[in-house]
Amino acid sequence: MAFRSDDISINTLVGNGSFIKGDLKVNGFIRVDGDIDGDLNTDGAVIISEKARIHGNLVAKSAIIGGIILGDVTAREGVKLLSSSAVIGNIITRKVQMEDKVIFHGHCISIEDETRFDEETKRFLEAKAIRDKASLS
């Protein structure tokens, strides 16, 4: 499944008590135990621990979320929401798992077929961009 990886070595760690203000782009596997006020983008997997908070969008290959995210989550291979998690935003992925007691408020696109997933993601993001632009007017 998408939540397992042959390489489980963590390339980047945002430790408990750490606070980052601004967008963060990293290569490889990242674990977040602290707070990020900005977007997080990685080409690898991400673990958001139950103490972590992100106020921004998350883009990763796959994501396991135990903390709070106020923003959209895009993880092509899969998203797993643990019972301690809260996501206030949209989820775009090919596979999604949610444990009991998850808080999720947003839209979710979860289509396993890759071609259809790409088409629907593009359509959703275009519609969202139009809605966002119209709400700024």
Offer a quick outline of the entry.
With 137 residues, the protein is an alpha/beta fold. The chain has 1 helix and 16 strands.
Describe the structure.
The chain is of the alpha/beta class and 137 residues long. It is 17% helix and 43% strand. The chain has one helix and 16 strands. The chain starts with 11 loop residues before the first strand and ends with a helix. The model has no long low-confidence stretch (mean pLDDT 91).
Helix and strand layout, with pairings?
Layout: E1 12-14, E2 19-21, E3 24-26, E4 30-32, E5 35-37, E6 40-42, E7 45-48, E8 53-54, E9 58-65, E10 68-70, E11 73-81, E12 86-88, E13 91-93, E14 96-98, E15 103-105, E16 108-110, H1 114-136
Parallel strand pairs: 1-4, 2-5, 3-6, 4-7, 5-8, 6-9, 7-9, 8-10, 9-11, 10-12, 11-13, 11-14, 12-15, 13-16
Give me the Rg, rounded. 14 Å
Summed up, the helix count is 1
- Roughly what percent helix? 10-25%
User: In angstroms, what separates the terminal alpha carbons?
Assistant: 43 Å
Helix and strand composition category: alpha/beta
Q: What portion of residues belong to β-strands?
A: 35-45%
Low-confidence stretches: none
User: How would you spell out the order of helices and strands?
Assistant: EEEEEEEEEEEEEEEEH
Please give the largest β-sheet.
10 strands, parallel
What is the average of the pLDDT values? 91
What labels describe this entry?
6-stranded parallel beta sheet, alpha/beta, 10-stranded parallel beta sheet, 1 helix, 137 residues
